[in-house]
Amino acid sequence: MSFDFTLTITAGLVxxxxxxxxxxxxxxxxxxxxxxxxxxxxxAHGLLILGYAAQRLALEDLSIHRITAQYTRAAxxxxxxxxxxxxxxxxxxxxxxSTTGERVASGRIVVQ
Amino acid sequence: MIDATWEGSISPDxxxxxxxxxxxxxxxxxxxxxxxxxxxxxxxxxxSIQPTGVFAAVPPTLPASWWQYLPQPWLPQDRVPILREQTxxxxxxxxPGERLICHVRLDRLRRRGSYEYLTCxxxxxxxxxxxxxxTSRLVVRA
Lengths: 112, 142
Description:
Chain A is of the alpha+beta class. Chain A is built from 3 helices and 5 strands. Helices cover about 25% and strands about 35% of the residues of chain A. A 5-stranded antiparallel sheet of chain A has the order 1-3-4-5-2, covered by helices on one side. Chain A starts with a strand and ends with a strand. Chain B has helices spanning about 20-35, 40, 45; strands at about 15, 80-90, 100-110, 115-125, 130-140.
């Protein structure tokens, strides 16, 4: 089984995620702050990307036991990210890529 | 540079009440536009925190957001940590409203070139029961 979905990272989503988690790291809101640490501009929280991946599987009514993520590069505000899930024994491998195919994050979600 | 003697340190315990509503609502906001044909993603009544609704289950990534509530004196205040890797191990589903005792441990601190790499684990317990371990690997400029 495999499935996917696409999500555009808007400033509104990032702000709402910050309000929910308390993570107001300026790299998510201020282009200059992001550039000072080597990013191309303000970006989504890594946990926002992982949160959407896990929540998509929650819609399948799956019980999640383990989630892993490797963040390859930051997902910029305004970018559209394509999430893809491939069923493997005991769970799903997942990837998040930009529209140009650049890997943003990947990992594995173990379900019961 | 981060003082190497912090490695192995454990923060004081902090009690955290499991409140899934803000994160569930934030994630639902994106999924409702990403999955317009999925009733569970778009029906705000179904996805609000209903006792039997999908989102009544706590978002599994919620514990990974609790770093903000735990003191981590080893983190430099003048530099921005960047998240590189993350793992969340859930021993059981979390229950909305339950109170967990949490701490953070600095497992590993390494310096390579002009960067410092930290591996930190957040541990959440309910009495003697281990409930969640969330590990993050961060990088900061030295």
